């Protein structure tokens, strides 16, 4: 009996020792294992990653469609560095001569965005992005970089066209149908704000046909609250299908950042300018040589006008088309052909749309009479490129 008890005690001691060792060094061996159940997933793996389906309310498809067409634009130009005004002082130079050396040259850089408008490498951007630059580099969404050539520019709409030779077809943006945009539509702004990289912001169309902003000569802007910041200039404003509706151009800001008021050039304006630049290297517009101004209630009263409609002719260039046609300072232009003139901006747009050399009939109110005058349209002078 004693021997049996001794054997039992030894066995218990060994078992406790084994449990202690296992619990210390291999605790997983002592935990119960859940049964393994293999389930076959019949859904494609791509759907799990969100590539096949988008969540409700998502604009991922529109972003995927437009992103490859938006590029980053890097510019540089050479300029003389600033030096102390003392170096130009005769007395200073008498004592020190030219020992401080000539004015040093340095390069400044800028950044912006652009939109691939055709598969053969034409790119739309803002004129102020590339203005006065002597070197332009374009970086595609896939990381490739190319030197760009300036095809032409139009300062009066703040648009420019570049071209790159990529050795193959490029992902061109699709243009939204004319007049397809309405206030309240969702839009995405795509660009390279502050140089941080490709960025998509979302908002709505806040207003259409914004003018009198002092941004450019011909203004018909889309206003949006999609965040647009420095570096977004020249980038794309697209609709919920990823089609281009505008070229981001400017923001209203007191700090330099977005305040929810951004402006884009409508795609119809941009495409017309681009087509003309590609075809002829410049934009040709009609011109009659007058200075115009808005008719305020005070002016209407002083000129005995029935309303404030029309454009007041404040000055006429001697020998210009308007002067030859008989238009005089003080006339109120109220119609061109069959089109009524409600404002100076409308008059500017209608005249610009006329072909140089064409004959047009201008309806003016002179004192208390309404008369028609024939005017042969001239060519609007081009603004020379800054040197």
Side-by-side strand order of the widest sheet: 5-4-1-2-3-7-6
End-to-end Cα distance, whole Å, is 116 Å
Query: Do you know the CATH topology of the domain at 186-280?
Result: Thrombin, subunit H
- Series of secondary-structure elements, N-terminal to C-terminal: HHHEHEEHEEEEEEEEEEHEEHEHEEHEEE
**Helix/strand/pairing class, anyone?**
alpha+beta
CATH architecture of the domain at 186-280: Beta Barrel
How many beta strands in the DSSP annotation? Answer: 21
What is the C-level CATH assignment of the domain at 186-280?
Mainly Beta
Tell the overall outline: elongated
Number of helices: 9
Radius of gyration: 34 Å
Strand content: 25-35%
CATH homologous superfamily label of the domain at 186-280: Trypsin-like serine proteases
Approximate helicity band: 10-25%
The overall pLDDT average reads 81
Main sheet makeup = 7 strands, antiparallel
Low-confidence segments:
34-52
GO molecular function, one term: serine-type endopeptidase activity
Binding site for substrate: 128, 158, 231-233
Keywords: Hydrolase, Protease, Repeat, Serine protease, Signal
InterPro entries: Chloro_Bact_Ser_Proteases, PDZ, PDZ_sf, Pept_S1C_Do, Peptidase_S1_PA, Peptidase_S1C
